[in-house]
Please model this.
Amino acid sequence: SVAFGHRDVYTNHWAVRITGGQEQADKISAKYGYMNLGQIGSLEDHYHFHHSRIVRRAAYALKGPHSFIHMDPEVDWAQQQVVKPRVKR
Amino acid sequence: HAQIDPSFIHFNDPKWFNMWYIHCNDKSSHCRSEMNIQAAWQRGYTGKNVVVTILDDGIERNHPDLAQNYDHLASYDVNGNDHDPTPRYDSRNENIHGTRCAGEVAAVANNSHCMVGIAYNAHIGGIRMLDGDVTDIVEAKSLGIRPDYIDIYSASWGPKDDGKTVDGPGPLTKQAFERGIKKGRKGLGSIFVWASGNGGRQGDHCSCDGYTSSIYTISISSTTENGNRPWYLEACSSILATTYSSGDFNERKIVTTDIRQRCTDGHTGTSVSAPIVAGIIALALEANFLLTWRDVQHLLVRTSRPVHLKADDWRTNAAGHRVSHLYGFGLVDAEAMVLEAEKWRTVPSQHTCSQMPERRIRYIHAGQSVNSSITTSGCSEEPEQHVDHLEHVVVKVLVVHPRRGDLEINLISPSGMKSQLLAKRLFDSSNEGFRNWEFMTVHFWGEKAEGTWTLEIIDSPSKLRNPEVLGNLKEWTLILHGTSQNPYQPYSGQHSSSRMLEIPASQEFQEEQQLEAEEEQDEYNGSCHSECGDQGCDGPDAEHCLNCVHFSLGSLKSDRSCVSHCPLGHYEDMVSRRCRRCYKGCERCVGQSAGDCVSCRRGLYLNRLNSSCTDTCPPGYFADENQRQCLKCHDTCMRCLRYADRCTACRERYSLAGMTCVPQCTDGTFFHLEEMTCSPCHSSCRTCTGPGKEECIQCAEDYLQQEWGCVQTCTPGFYSGESAGVPHKMCHRCEENCLSCSGPGTTCTKCKEGYSLVSRTCIVNASCNNADEVFCEMVKSNRLCEKKLYRQFCCRTCLMNG
Model:
């Protein structure tokens, strides 16, 4: 369950968009301390990165060396994942 | 109200008699069961070869009523990142939902267990994705699993239905939807079925749920046995259709499979309805595998109807469709769906026309309303964007407002039809407004796009507000989706009862031969028509001839005329020099009998085997629209549709791959589409879809599955182990930062560079500056190092320091 009410809960997972294939994605993930968990489903050039040194859940998007991934010129887009409260109907 | 059904199917599943929503055979009480599922079964459709997956908290794949239909290729565990979607069992039975949904779709029939699914011969899988943190990545991954294999994704969850949430798919999930409808099912488009919101008691409105209000999802609502509104039901303009579900305590319930191999009637809500529709769509896909994602929505619009569903707001739109904010186009009709599907013509391609009014400030005063209008041509000047016949209409708004729940938003089409895009929500006190939120309505389906559209925003304050803080409609965009042509061909069935194409002969010939000349009584001395013969005429026209040069058409009763050539539907009888009618349905013929046809009228096809016109070609033949003939399917096809090589069933020793019949290749080989032969798999594969080592389906003997390939030994970072649901051993990932381990959990024997092995786990080599004796004693006494979260901190330093 989400512990922080309506506020976003940030995780230690990122979605990134990197062209250049799996190798390039692996290179960039290693550069900033992430682990590349592979392509996101059928979305080409989109990868799932995980950072084990970032706390699993946080009320804020914690800043650190890992944040520089957003500024890397090889990274088209990056987004830290937030927990989305979902209910079964 | 149904009488005793003489064609009642009997299954030995113990709860079959409780399945009132499929059949009515209760002699003691009135019963209405109008989804016509049994009738669809009686036409031979049970979901065979259709693949459905349930996105939820898992599926009990070894449930006796699911095991036979369970398909591991339609399944995945996104939460656990493995191939086994078995739900996590706990004392609170949290993870019952997916199994309950799955049973409704494809519980096995006549196996003495529990109940019967709507598509009881379909393949059923489960994607476990709700039992953990749900993120945009989790949702996008789940919606993109095997899109060429899975036909239908059913989801019975969504954002909170608390009456104050506005939430929807993130950027990745939106892309997953778009990719699914464009590329899924080999270009026909994945089918996404979604349960509409359950927040009726909280006054929620399902337009604030971006999943159900997406044009790519089929949003489904619920009604009770007696057609009443269930307590949980939300209203909104994006609902497409409705099914029965559980309702009040004095109304009957839905039965389905439950975890721990049980059966239950506790499943309720709109969660019941989405899987039912997924099952019905499976029946329709079996009737016509070439239905696109939009075809399916059209079928639902055309075949769903109000019947006994009670609502105050049933309206008929300008296209003649009856629609309600509670039920969409009404109760689904499975029989009508399959019958329409059989003869369905793919709708024309989707066009999208967007228009925005000129920007200006439009303040919304408390207690008042704001109207803004756009006049559109439906982008008629742009052929690729032109929308004439509407499907979905989307309004994207940017509204700033101090109390969002006080707003009601309506859209009025050029025909005057009004659709409520948003109702007031009592519990929504947010001041965030709507930031480019997209409201969607299906209420204008089939209407014309051209004309003036009006957006109406009504502010009805429910609590005291500062009157100086005004709302503001900053901008809005009208997005029209639809087609430039009429999507329905004249011979498509308009209703399930008109499924047989009949051409009344008298009507047909009346339309072609309107010969209503009055007989001239007076003697005529003028010149005759050129077609008149040597006996002269009574008047100037061809109808006045006393005999003909070439052929005579008609009779005394229908007014005879002279013609040079006989019209369509007739042949030239050279002996009597008369035009005689062809057999019914023939356009051109050489004689009067059914076997004398040369070509057929529109909507019928010439069967060259017996030279007759038919609306259904014999097995092994397909109806060719261009030649209007029954043409032979490809040799390997037993049945095909629209083209000789678009197979829907194969001959012996061939199997269906998409729409192609390919030889059944033996193990170790795959069918190479370009070379049209069986080619060898990679040596590491036992079965495969291609030559590469990443294309294995099952691994060869002595090989293990690692990620998406097969290896002889697991690479560093992985360990070998069994995996439930997979017939061969697999390489599982060791704990993070570990290069070599013997199993799951803390079993590491060698770490990556930069990490040290401490208590069989890998800890970063960093030292802690403040790890003094007192601190380390606290760490030790609280056994913090046994908790993964704390291992990276000071455990190494403390342990190294003794």
Summary: The CA atoms of residues 197 and 372 of chain B lie 29 Å apart. The radius of gyration of chain B is 33 Å. Chain B touches chain A at residues 56-57, 81, 97, 130, 133-137, 139-145, 147, 156-161, 165, 167, 170-172, 175-176, 179-180, 183, 195, 197-198, 269-271, 707, 736-737, 789, 792 (CB under 8 Å). The mean pLDDT of chain B is 87.
